[in-house]
Amino acid sequence: MPKALVVSDEVDERLWTDAVRAVSVDLVIGAGDLPYDYLAFLAGALDVPCVFVPGNHDPDLSGYTRYGGLSMKDGFPTVWPGPAGGVNADGRVVDVAGLRFAGLGGSIRYNDGPNQWTQRQQARRARGLVRRAKWRRRRDGRDVDILLTHSPPLDLGDRADPPHRGFACLHRTIDALRPKWLLHGHIHPHGEPVPDRVVGGTRIRNVVGHRIMEFS
């Protein structure tokens, strides 16, 4: 039963110290809008893998390819700005620590910043993700365990202001993939309790801040 340190949006300074080594987990999961140095520190200090999606305040990671320890962009070696050793699940289906993730990072487009998408753009990305997940399932019979996003589905834990509206396409993505979990950030609770939401067999959880979670 893998156990994860799940983080998003808000740095906990208590974790950014050697004290975090007392936490016993199998992986770090990042749902966006955190310094990549923070994710790299957590994974390094705990000596576990890290899987993440970028948020709307994170650097643009598109266009990078990685071969072994070498990062390339536009055909030239370059420094990857993401967390050292981290697995970027945005638009991908990846297996980490015994769990299968499908990832969709970013938020609704509200200015010219990185990792922002219109409803139509994110829907196109989501359809591609579903195709990749179904291909993987035909290949090995495994389903997606966790749909990892930065933004929530529309009307399921989002907010009415334009930057914090959720994505409508995530409803169809849940229906197609039927993951056990959808983990998202982006919506800061500001101290208010945030109950999980359940759609079919999928539990939707806002993970802003940090949580320790076990996954069967």
From TrEMBL:
Stored InterPro entries: Calcineurin-like_PHP, Metallo-depent_PP-like, UPF0046_metallophosphoest
Regions crossing the membrane: none
Record domain Calcineurin-like phosphoesterase: where: 16-189
Any one Gene Ontology molecular-function term assigned to this protein's record: hydrolase activity
Pfam families (alphabetical): Metallophos
Source organism superkingdom: Bacteria
Gene3D superfamilies reported for this sequence: 3.60.21.10
Protein's name according to its UniProt entry: Metallophosphoesterase
Species classification: Bacteria, Bacillati, Actinomycetota, Actinomycetes, Pseudonocardiales
